[in-house]
Structure formats: structure tokens, C-alpha cells
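Reading a protein record of the kind used here takes only a little practice. The record below shows the convention in full.

——
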Amino acid sequence: MLPSLTFYFAGFFLAATVHGASITPDGVPSGFEQPTVPARNRTDFDTIFAEITESTTLSTRSPKDIHIAARQARATPKFFELTFGPIGAANNADGYMGFVSLETYDVNACATSCNTRGFDSSSGPCIFFNIWTAVVNGSATSTVCSLYNTVTDNSTATNTGQGDLVVTASRGYSRKSLIQDGSFQDYTCIVTQTNGCPFTPSKFWTRFVPAGYDFVLVNNNPAHSGTSSAFFFFSPPSPDAYAYGSTLDYALPTNAVAGKTYVISFFYTNSNLFPAPANLTGPLVSALWNGVSVIDAPQVGPETFNGLSFMNIIAEVVAQGDDTFTLKNGVAFPHAMYVDDIAIFEKWY
């Protein structure tokens, strides 16, 4: 059994008995206080609308012509699927990566902008785009292609325009992933366990928790997107305690096509367990493809803890058929960290 531990989470001082702790109605161990996540970039409508308004070349097409062109451009581009639209509101969501002005309502051109958008560990790849046409005083002025590193739906399409500028023919497209519910939005927490929400029942994920000091908790944790994430905790009671490595397994068939190359992508945080252990070498969490580790997500520092800033990490894999995907908790050093927005995309670059 774990002794009482004193630690910090993202600046909050906490004292808790981790192993054997009672579970609160929220499905988290008593004594835990969830840290917060800094606000992320949202659509910069000020810049978009300013560029449209300042444009001196206005199209003579009528709104009717615009909708005809939009209907003709409905073919879904490779790697993507239609998420919403057409509607009369533009997307205003987290994960904004900028926009491109298009000469015509060209969904494939917008998809190409998303596919070729540069990315790094801070942003992650472009996985969602919103294309729409601005109509000012009855004339089409510009077709806007906004890019995002987070998938969303029509619930965030809330901007209908301003003044004489009206948003029309707005469509959202998401990059297709083999993983369903990689952001952990579909779960039921049954508060009966001593080590957190068991995520039961779930048709998407199953977990193996071997010990009270080595567990995965899926709940309303700080998230990269949405309201939930997976929390990975490892803090053995002594250096010689057995290191198990709890796991979170994708429960459904991935349906990866044998021979095709895919990109595994997810966001994770540094450990927020303080004081930091002396040794920070080794993975916080590993991604296993068919039981073989293909990603070892490291602590970035080694001594600078970045709070709850989510980082992206990716790896390419080749499908063999009947492929499996697992996240395995690291056991190299004590840690407490979060994982969110897991996806497996067909390689697009």
C-alpha cells in the first residue's frame, strides 16, 4: 500500500493518500484537485473580416450563383469526411492554425492547404478545415478556408458574420481517423473503484490497472479538447516495487488496410508530479502498435515542467491486418500526466 504522498499538480499544493483513497462523486480520488489548461487559439475573425472588408475587388456573382458553385464542390476530398454543412455560420473553435483566401469555392484546394500546413510538437497537424463564402451587400467577396488542429462539429459554428458581411455555404471537414472517441467524450463513470473511474461500460476503450500506484483514470480531466482525457499515474511506494505498466487498449478493430502507412498522433502533457524525481529518463507513456512500442513520449525538460501545455507526438506505422493499438503507462520514474485526442490517420504527406 502506498504511503501518504505530498505533491503538486500544476501549481496546486495537494496532500493525498493515493492508494486506497475514496472516490468522489466526480469519479476521481479524494484529495485530487484538477489543474486547469491555458486557453487555446480560436478563430481570428477580426483579421479575416478585416481582409474581406478591405478587399477592393468584389465578385459580381449573386448569392444564387454562390450556392450553385458550392453544391458543385461537394465532392469530399481524400483523407477527409464531411462533418457539417452547408450552414450559414463559420467555425469558432479551439486549435485555430490560420486561414487561406481562395479564389473559388474549392474544397479540394482547402484540403490541400490543410494537408500541406506545417506543424510541430506545439501545434500538431491540421486535421479539420472550415470553408465558407463571405457575401457583402449581395456580392461574393472571398472564400475563406480556416484550418484547425482539433476536430469539432457544428456546435462551434456560431459566427454568422457582421454588419453587411454574411457567412454562407459553410462546411466543416474532419481528417478521417481509425480511432473512434480518441478524445474520451463517450464514457460512463461508475464510482465503485478505489483507483478512479473504471470507464465501464465503454465500447471504445478498456483498461488494465494492476496496482494502486500504477493506474489509468479516464474522467473529466483537464483536456486538449472537449471535457475529458486519460490520466496516467505512476508512483511506487519504494524503488524496488514491481513496475507493472497499466494499459489503455482500443477495444474496437482498427480496420487498418494491410500495407498502408498510417500516422499515430496524440497530445500529452509533461508530468505534474512535484517534487520532480532525480531521474527523468524514459517514457511517460508509450504507444504500442501490434504490441510493439512505436512512440515513447518523453518528459520535456528535463527539469522544466511546463504545467498542462499539451504537446503533440506522432509516428508512422505500416498496417499488417488485424492491427491493435495500446497506450502503456511508463514505469521509469514517478509521474502524473494526461493524454488526449488520440488518432490514427492514413498518411497524407
About this structure: The chain has three helices and 20 strands. Confidence is low (pLDDT under 50) at residues 1-23, 56-60. Residues 276 and 303 are 8 Å apart (CA to CA). The first helix runs from residue 45 to 54.
